[in-house]
Design goal:
Number of strands: 9
Strand content: 5-15%
Order of helices and strands: EHEHHEHHEEHEEHHHHHHHHEEHHHHH
Helix content: 40-55%
Number of domains: 2
Largest sheet: 3 strands, antiparallel
Structural class: mainly alpha
CATH superfamily of the largest domain: Fumarase/aspartase (Central domain)
Radius of gyration: 26 Å
CATH architecture of the largest domain: Up-down Bundle
CATH class of the largest domain: Mainly Alpha
Distance between the termini: 22 Å
Length: about 500
């Protein structure tokens, strides 16, 4: 994909991923420009023609909603809003999330219900298209009233304030303007609020996490299949009949994928001495499948959100109505991201249990998967690391969405804490890749002690992995091995 034109047709999560991955240049269609401009013209006319108070347009913000602002100060009001709300703390938001924020903010403003200028929306896309990434901080949003602080930092460079990174190099907004020969934009009435009210910080993290969750689910199936082979496991639990009578879609999908991965394997077909396998192998369809169902649900919620108008107030020019409501409230995303964190955590949890079994010195495998255990510790401690990560995931799965705290003098008396759900979900995703890499490291090592061949797909996986990580004959620098393994799974397993 080289170019993508925003038309206000439904945008799928897959399209967002494709835009990000391809580096496509994004622009507005003429129809969308006309809708944005028509909304802007309507709002200007409405403000000039009467003195009715419209929240955030000619009033203060939050608990100052009843404080009238003179018509002469409306532009200053919006600039003040962005400057005063840019109070983020903590670590910088990763570049991959900033790119999504820019794209999703432009999508949200493109519907013509926000009162933004065309130039403002195009400036967001200019930043996106030219890898100009505003510096945004993780902490500062309550996940209601919009992602105020993160989106303020995202918006500062539009005004010629704040900092950006371009090609990884830090610039002040003024330096960036000089480099690209652009001028700051003067915000019109309501524009600052349109930029700050919205869920694009949360939805950027959510869309990233859903995309990676699907990838993690597929790859955990592949790695689990290799572990099953290495542990001399049985195929019976993956039969279609036993899984179909459970009626759970994700379970059926998982079992089907496992059968495909194991098809043609000499190892799986050989006569087994044991009657059944431990749960971490036998219940892969049930556990992985439940996570897949959760991922699918969360994907639906997130896709709805990226196609939504989530700022406040919303402008309905054809009805001659400006409505102050609560579309900025992040509860749908907060609950979904908490749910997704739990679903991913369980994929990592059962993965670590398979690692534990592989190093146990049973089923004909040497203790800790090394030829001379005792002299060598082998893969003893990578399991410790996996256990530590899995335990941290459990802590990160404490729901953020059940928390709330009163703010803005009681005006904002229930918030979603969706931003905290977002940032901890990001950590769970990263942790899952680490555990997945550790399981693959162990599974490949264990398979190398087997004489029989696995399936074509799993042998290809092992072959590709061995180009990056060698078989371990004696103790080696474990961290280096684990980093290489994690890098391999993050780059993507070829299915």
């Amino acid at each position: 994909m080289n170019n993508y034109i925003i038309t206000n047709e439904w945008v799928t999560l897959e399209q967002v991923d494709a835009i990000i991955a391809s580096g496509a240049k994004v622009s507005l269609s003429e129809d969308v420009k006309n809708e944005i401009q028509a909304c802007r013209d309507y709002l200007d006319q409405k403000v000039q023609s009467n003195d009715d108070l419209i929240y955030g347009v000619n009033t203060g913000f939050g608990s100052l909603c009843n404080t009238a602002i003179s018509k002469d100060d409306l532009e200053q009001l919006q600039r003040n809003l962005v400057l005063s709300h840019a109070c983020g703390m903590g670590a910088e938001v990763p570049a991959e999330i900033i790119r999504r924020m820019l794209l999703l903010k432009a999508l949200g403003l493109s519907h013509g219900n926000s009162g933004a200028q065309v130039a403002t929306v195009e400036r967001l896309l200019f930043f996106f298209n030219n890898d100009i990434l505003p510096v945004v901080y993780e902490q500062g949003s309550l996940g209601a009233s919009g992602d105020l602080s993160p989106l303020a930092h995202l918006s500062l460079p539009i005004l010629g304030e704040g900092e950006v990174r371009h090609m990884g190099i830090a610039y002040s907004a003024e330096e960036m303007q000089s480099l690209f020969k652009i001028d700051p934009i003067v915000l019109r009435s309501k524009e600052g609020l349109a930029l700050l009210n919205g869920t694009q910080f949360m939805s950027a993290y959510a869309s990233f996490s859903v995309s990676n969750a699907l990838k993690l689910w597929r790859q955990f199936n592949s790695v689990a299949a290799l572990s099953l082979e290495a542990y001399d496991g049985r195929l019976n639990p993956f039969q279609s009949n036993v899984n179909e009578i459970r009626n759970q879609k994700g379970q059926i999908e998982t079992a089907e994928m496992m059968r495909e991965l194991l098809s043609g394997s000499e190892m799986i077909a050989r006569k087994k001495e044991h009657v059944q396998d431990p749960y971490s192998f036998r219940c892969i369809p049930q556990v992985h499948g439940a996570s897949k169902d959760a991922i699918d649900y969360c994907a639906t919620i997130v896709e709805r959100e990226i196609n939504a108008v989530t700022d406040n107030p919303t402008v309905f020019r054809e009805e001659d109505d400006v409505v102050s409501a609560g579309n900025f409230h992040g509860q749908p995303l907060a609950i979904s991201m908490d749910f997704l964190a739990i679903a991913l955590s369980e994929l990592a949890s059962i993965s670590e249990r398979r690692v534990y079994k592989l190093i146990s010195g049973t089923r004909g495998l040497p203790a800790f998967l090394v030829a001379e255990p005792g002299l060598n510790s082998g893969f003893m401690i990578p399991q410790y690391t996996a256990a530590s990560i899995v335990s941290q995931n459990k802590q990160l799965c404490t729901p953020a969405s059940v928390d709330s705290i009163e703010s803005s003098n009681g005006q904002e008396d229930h918030v979603s804490m969706g931003a905290n759900a977002a940032t901890k979900l990001y950590r769970v995703v990263e942790n899952c890749y680490s555990v997945q890499g550790i399981e693959l490291l162990n599974a490949a090592q264990a398979m190398d002690f087997r004489d029989e061949k696995s399936s074509e797909k799993l042998e290809k996986l092992r072959e590709d992995f061995r180009k990056n990580v060698s078989f371990i004959k004696q103790d080696a620098y474990s961290h280096k091995l684990m980093k290489a393994s994690v890098k391999f799974v993050k780059q993507g397993i070829n299915h």
